């Protein structure tokens, strides 16, 4: 395995590991803040952090690039998280967890039709079926059986599709050759801009006393510095190194990380069903990683970029 591929896999794993633990921080924050308040504050912290880490302004070479950044911000920051949060208000968390995990399937399909990537083969579909079976077992073992909730489930499917679009936009942005921190920060900027109208619609109201509570401050910093600033940079780096499809399949690991951290931190038990689900999910991830030639193609494209542009830091 090439060194760039190893760094890409490590970046993807670190990203998913942190994203898989964010439910704990979000659960604490929801006691005093609304979902939109948490979302806006965490990305505002992330945006400010990326300026401190790499204080160099990005000037897109052409209008099409600017539109691509705007689309990535709209999809990956504003729409995805809003649709996911709205889905959670209408349907079960177990439903959302399973449905969101189909994002790699949409990524592969879109990559084939829009980027002329490889046609998904038997290994990819087998890995997808294995991973989804495992995720269903993990979700089902939590005691919340999957049930049909049309509006919430449709919103969750929409979020999965939006994330797939964001993954492809990220790969396109990687082709521009900008520093990954600059590119991520530009995406955050547009995500925050598109979020502003929603703040008025959802009665955004945060008091200083809420932010100064130690538990709230600590969890907001974790979400802003780790889950937003760091993770979006490492995710975007992984997409550049591995390609959008092979990076996206790491999403299968989110329920696995969540189940394991729930057991370690919250004391929840890992049942026999969830243990089998974890093994199936990891097996599906392995099979999916072995599929396709998009990685080699994308790695070759990335290799022609200046070395400094590929260096970076849920």
Automatic annotation (TrEMBL):
Query: Any idea where the EamA domain is?
Result: 6-139, 151-287
**What membrane topology is given?**
Multi-pass membrane protein
Report the domain of life of the source organism. Bacteria
Could you tell me the keywords of this UniProt record?
Answer: Cell membrane, Membrane, Transmembrane, Transmembrane helix
Q: Give the stretches traversing the membrane.
A: 12-30, 36-54, 89-113, 125-145, 151-169, 189-206, 218-237, 249-266, 272-288
Listed PANTHER family: INNER MEMBRANE TRANSPORTER, S-ADENOSYLMETHIONINE_S-ADENOSYLHOMOCYSTEINE TRANSPORTER
The question of whether Cell membrane is a record keyword is answered with yes
Which ranges form a coiled coil?
A: none
What does the sequence similarity comment in the record state about its family?
A: Belongs to the EamA transporter family.
From the Swiss-Prot or TrEMBL record, give the protein name: DMT family transporter
InterPro entries according to UniProt: AA-Vitamin_Transporters, EamA_dom, EmrE-like
